[in-house]
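pinned: reference chain
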Amino acid sequence: MTKIVTAVFEISAWEPTAFPGIEAWLGAVTMRKHYTKGLIGESEGPFLHTGDEANRGYLAMERISGELEDGRRGSFVVHHGAVQSSDHPSAFGYIVPGSGAGDFASWSGSARIEHDEAGAASFVFTLD
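pinned: its structure tokens
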């Protein structure tokens, strides 16, 4: 049975990280998020990007830890990326199988970022 979990988030930290020798074309940050609805918790992970506002690509991996509204708790890793923007056809996101802990130990499936009319961001996890 497929289950959908929608987790509203905001970026809480964006800390630049150097990659000596390739910083001319690759930017890197440590990204932290605060999850406020659907899943209450935090995440942290590397975010790599190249290009500018008009033409860019990114790859990110983050460990999300938190609690669902029904009280289940745990953590899992999400790998996601896109060319140009999160709604570009190249956008992808997956829960890394076997990365879960606690009540989320068996989680696997897809992950996509959506934005509402006001610009608020959510991760929509479709669990297998």
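why pinned: The radius of gyration is 15 Å. The beta strands are 3-17, 27-37, 39-51, 56-68, 73-83, 92-95, 101-102, 109-115, 121-127.
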